[in-house]
Amino acid sequence: MDAHLTLTADRFPLVRDIGWNQTEELYTHPDRTLDYDVFLYVASGSMQVVEEGVPFIIHAKQYLFLKKGLHHWGRHETAAGTQWYWVHFNMADSGNTLYKEKAPLQELALYYPDHYLYRLILPKQGAAFPGMENRLNALMKGLEEGRSHQMTRTSLSVYELFLDLHQASVEERKSTSAEEISEQIIAFLSSHSCEPFSASHLAAALNLNYSYLSATFKRVTGQSIIETHTRLRLQHAVALMRSSSLNISDISDRLGYQNPFYFSRVFKKIYGESPSAYLRQFYRSH
């Protein structure tokens, strides 16, 4: 059984309803199989639920995702006085789209053709971040107000909440040496984005073997060091297109590409169009 909730960056969850409940005595979770996913958050007390034979206890300030199509039920064990919120939602069908397993690195924020085709994996169960109850209360209040496009607004807010849960889970794992090394690599690449990549200079700067750096970076980020350097380099090119009157040949030279035709070929591979076509998108007064 898949133990995670998978989101994609190009589609948001579609909310069915959001609610809150409190029990004054021992409570039994309903026995059912749903055609939608469930997000449970326990504000106080504790809730017991079983999914496909796997038991879970959700303690105060914890959450649990129940997946659609899986049988779940409860025993008469949920503590009296337990308060909990739920969000029922459907995930939009992604069809046959192929998604990357890693999100783009934060430093590579500019759009390119497959920018949004990646997955986000949330733990099935975990601790919530501070302010979760305020967020959920605001969502319920918003539904009551009935503004135009309210269900879509609510779905977008729930997606943002799930993104924040994902980020919190990432931060919990970020204390490993592999994460630290990857951050150091990105810092080095960012400071050398206007020049050709040098594996020996990177290895010397971090005082580590390049093969080890390359394998570690790929495992943590899902991208190669050279690919990341190239994207940072071209991101710098786009920044120059936006802010200067330099032509393509000047930009190529500024970034250390000796051949502007090679620069154009690399740019088109990443952005899906030539640098001259991309440049025409901008209105410049220079």
From TrEMBL:
<keyword id="KW-0805">Transcription regulation</keyword>
<dbReference type="InterPro" id="IPR014710">
    <property type="entry name" value="RmlC-like_jellyroll"/>
</dbReference>
<dbReference type="InterPro" id="IPR018060">
    <property type="entry name" value="HTH_AraC"/>
</dbReference>
<dbReference type="GO" id="GO:0003700">
    <property type="term" value="F:DNA-binding transcription factor activity"/>
</dbReference>
<keyword id="KW-0238">DNA-binding</keyword>
<dbReference type="InterPro" id="IPR009057">
    <property type="entry name" value="Homeodomain-like_sf"/>
</dbReference>
<dbReference type="InterPro" id="IPR020449">
    <property type="entry name" value="Tscrpt_reg_AraC-type_HTH"/>
</dbReference>
<feature type="domain" description="HTH araC/xylS-type">
    <location>
        <begin position="183"/>
        <end position="281"/>
    </location>
</feature>
<dbReference type="InterPro" id="IPR018062">
    <property type="entry name" value="HTH_AraC-typ_CS"/>
</dbReference>
<protein>
    <submittedName>
        <fullName>AraC-type DNA-binding protein</fullName>
    </submittedName>
</protein>
<dbReference type="Pfam" id="PF12833">
    <property type="entry name" value="HTH_18"/>
</dbReference>
<dbReference type="GO" id="GO:0043565">
    <property type="term" value="F:sequence-specific DNA binding"/>
</dbReference>
<dbReference type="InterPro" id="IPR037923">
    <property type="entry name" value="HTH-like"/>
</dbReference>
<keyword id="KW-0804">Transcription</keyword>
